[in-house]
Amino acid sequence: MQNANLTMKKIAKELGVSVSTVSRALQNHPRIGSLTREKVQKLAKELHYQPNSRAINFKNNKSFNVGVVLPYLTEQYFSIALTGIEQTLMSKGYSMVVMQSMNDYERESAAIESLIKHGVDGILVSMASETYNKTHFNNATHKVPIVFFDRVLKHPRYSAVYGNITKAAFDAMEYLIGKGFTEIALMNGPNSLQSTEERLKGYIDGLKKYNIPVSASYIKNLNLTKEDTILKINELLDLENPPKVVLAFHDYIALDAMQICKERGLQINRDISFVTFSNLSFCSYLDNPPIATVEQFPAELGAQAAGLLLEAMETPDTYQPREIVVEPKLIIR
Amino acid sequence: MQNANLTMKKIAKELGVSVSTVSRALQNHPRIGSLTREKVQKLAKELHYQPNSRAINFKNNKSFNVGVVLPYLTEQYFSIALTGIEQTLMSKGYSMVVMQSMNDYERESAAIESLIKHGVDGILVSMASETYNKTHFNNATHKVPIVFFDRVLKHPRYSAVYGNITKAAFDAMEYLIGKGFTEIALMNGPNSLQSTEERLKGYIDGLKKYNIPVSASYIKNLNLTKEDTILKINELLDLENPPKVVLAFHDYIALDAMQICKERGLQINRDISFVTFSNLSFCSYLDNPPIATVEQFPAELGAQAAGLLLEAMETPDTYQPREIVVEPKLIIR
DNA sequence: CTGTTAGCGCATTCAG
DNA sequence: CTGAATGCGCTAACAG
C-alpha cells in the first residue's frame, strides 16, 4: 500500500542525500554518480514514487490538458471528431477536457471560461449554432491559443480546420441534376453558421450552371431542432410543386424529415429522396437510405485541428494562425 | 489587451500593499479594510486579473478535473452517459477528461495511468470488454477514488452504478413468451462483462419459469466486433431450428444481425424479430425496428456515478464505497 | 559529482 | 487591519 503523498523530500531524507540529487537521479541528469542514481531509482521504484503532477504543472506553467468545446457529444459526427482529436493529442502526451455547448451561446461562453479557469493549455472549438457574439473567444485567446474545427470562425486571429462545403454542395447538385432531378430543395442550417452560407452557394451555383431557376420556396433555414425540421419539411411538402429531392444540412435533419414524409404517405426514394451531409454509420442500416451523402471526415478535421493547436502551444513564438481545408467526398449509395 | 501573466504580486506593487493584502481582498476575507478591499478589487477587475489556476491546484492539491474512461465515445449509449456525468460534475465546478479504451485492456490501463499523471481528482470507469486484469484499478485507487458505471467491477473496494440487467432480461423474456415466442436466441456479450452473466441469468430464468427447455445452441457469446456478430448470427440462422426472435446484447449487435438476416432473404419482424438493450434514438428511424428494447437510462447511470465520485472526493474520510442499482425499463414498440 | 539556494503564485500563519 | 514569513513539490542556477 504505497503512500499517496510520497515526495522527493522523503526519498532524500531516507537516503541521506539532498532533494536535488533525487531530482537529478530521477530524470537521468548527466551530472550524477551512477551509483547514487541507481540507489535513488531503486528506492523510488520500491516506494512507487510518482511525481506530483500538480507541482510540475505549476512549475512549468503547463497542464498538458486541452479543452474541447462542441455542440453535442451525442451527435456521432462530433464524437468521431473527438476520436481524431484524442488520437492526435495522445501521441504528444496531452489529454482532452470535453464540454458540450448544446448549441447555446451562454453554455459555450461558460465552457470557455471554465476551461481557462481549469488551466488548459489550449482550446479546440466547434461553434454553437446560437453563437452571435465572439467576445468569449477574444477574451480567451489572450490566455491560450484557440483553434476552430468544422464549425469555424473565420478570422485572421484564429486557426480553423473545415471542409470545403461549397464544393461538396455543388458536387451533390451536379450529381442530382445529372440524375435528372430539377425540383431540389435545400434544408439548410441557421445563418449563424459559416457552412450554411457555403451550402447555399454550392446549391445555387449548381442550379445556375444548368440554368435551373432558383426558387426561394425551396430554400429553408432550420435552427437544428427537431420541431423546426418538422415545420420546414411540412412547408416543403405543402408546396404546389413539392421537391423531388432534398439536400439536407445533415443526417439528423434528413432522418426527421424522412419520418414526416413517411407519415404523409410518401415513399422514400420513390416519391422523394434525400442527399445529406455527414455520412453517419447508422444510415447504412436504413431500408431506404439517402441516395448520396457528403462524407466530411470529421476525424480528420479533428486531428488536423489538434495538430495546429499542438503547434500553437509548443511553439507559440513562431506559430502563425492559418486555415486547413479538408476536401469532402460525395458518396453515392 | 490584458497581461496573461498578471499576478497578485504585480497588483500589490502597483498599489503599494503587500501580496497577502491583495490575497485577502480578492477572497473577501473578513479581516480587511473595506476601503483596501475595494481598491484592490477595482484594480484587479480593470487589469482582468485571473488567479493562476495551476498555482491554486498545486496549493490545494486538487485540480477539479475528473477522468472518465469508457469503451467508445461513438457509441451513443456512452455519449449519453457522458452527458449525465458532465451535468452532475459541472454543478460542482468539476470538468471531465475523457479517454476511450476501445475495449482494449492495454488502452484502458494506459488511460488510467495517464489520468493519474495528469492529476485528476477521481476517475469514472466503464470497463473495457477485454479487461481481464484489475491491477491498473488497484494501483490507481491508492491515489484517487474510482467509481464504476454501467460496465462495473463488483468489489467491496469500489463503488459502482449499474442497471438491474437480470431483471430486465427476465422481463424481456416474459414479454416474448407472453407473445407466444418459444424459439428465442440470446446474442450475449463477452464473459468478461458482468452484465453478460446477468443477461444469461434473466434469459434462463425466463425460459425455466415457463418450462421452455434451454438450448445451448441458442446461446452465443460475442466479442462485440462486427465480424463476430456476423459469424454468430449466421450460426443461429444455420440451425435446423433457427430462432424466431433474438435477444441482443445491445442495439449495435441487433443492427448488424438484422442486416445479415435481410441479406439472407428474411424479413425482419415477420420471419425473425429482435429485442435489444440500449434503446438508441436512431432505432426509431428503422422501418422494422426491434419489437422491444430495454432502456437502461445511461444518463442516469452516469449522473449517479458522478454523484458518488463527488462524495468520495469531497468527503474522503467518511465515504463508504457502495453500489447503486438503476432499474431499466422494457419499452414495447 | 553533489549540496545549497531561490523561486514559480498563492494562502495562511504569525507578528505587529 | 496589514505586512512579513513560510511552505506546498519540484527544477535549475549557482557554489563548491
TrEMBL record, chains A, B:
One Pfam match: LacI
Domain of life: Bacteria
InterPro entries per the UniProt record, alphabetical: HTH_LacI, Lambda_DNA-bd_dom_sf, Peripla_BP/Lac1_sug-bd_dom, Peripla_BP_I
Keywords, ordered alphabetically: DNA-binding, Transcription, Transcription regulation
Ranges in a coiled coil: none
PROSITE patterns in the record: HTH_LACI_2
Keyword Thylakoid: no
Molecular functions per Gene Ontology: DNA-binding transcription factor activity; transcription cis-regulatory region binding
Start and end residues of each HTH lacI-type domain: 6-60
Protein name: LacI family transcriptional regulator
Origin species: Dyadobacter psychrotolerans
